[in-house]
Amino acid sequence: MDMMTMNLREFEATQKKMNTVLLPIGMIEAHGPHCALGTDVLIPREFVRRLEEIAGDKILMAPEVAYGHSWGLAPFAGTIDVSAQAFSNYVFEICHGFYQNGFENIILFNGHGGNNSSLDVVTEKLADIGVRSLTINWFIDYREDIKRITPDPGHAGEDETSLVLAIDENYAFTKGVGSHEIPLPKRFRFKDGGAVLYPEAFSGNAEAATVQKGEQLYELLTGLILKDIEMLWELERQQRGTIK
Ligand SMILES: [Zn+2]
Q: Which regions span the lipid bilayer (predicted)?
């Protein structure tokens, strides 16, 4: 169910029959010279569209949070960075609002790596007030599966670029982009480090991306994501014996 287009009465009816909400979370930031600035919003949006077709009768699809935290890519034009503290407080308050509306299961569908540590803070605070949550970081959780289709993933790398191309071929290009490997593990931090680690604001082999690989990734990952969501409901069943 799409919350954005619901009216009050429809929402009240939805509250009575479901208690799971999915909140997409993205970022507006530089994605190489070749991918849309909204890549981390566009990809979760496409997953949500596919999940809605399969499980829309059991999940409320909430409007997305398009701005997140990106310390690493902040030196680049087009990155609109929100501090980790403000971002985690904001996402927590949104989730708290859903909890007050009867949604005890919250799925955070995250499209951006820089958000991860903030979302850990959010879900720990949510657990403490009684919310069950599942955070989906698709690029980490299914990385080994992703590498079978796109062996050289990364930030605006082969995987993300393929996923963007599969949405709309006008949102990315591959010709002449090339490939870039990060020279240091991300645990090294120094001023404007992102600009050194990602000189062109991307990593991985973007040039190898294709629409077909993107389509394959959507199909594979949508199935894996649904399995994880089923596990969230199984957790709920175990905790109280029934499910709405
Ligand atoms: Zn991205």
A: none
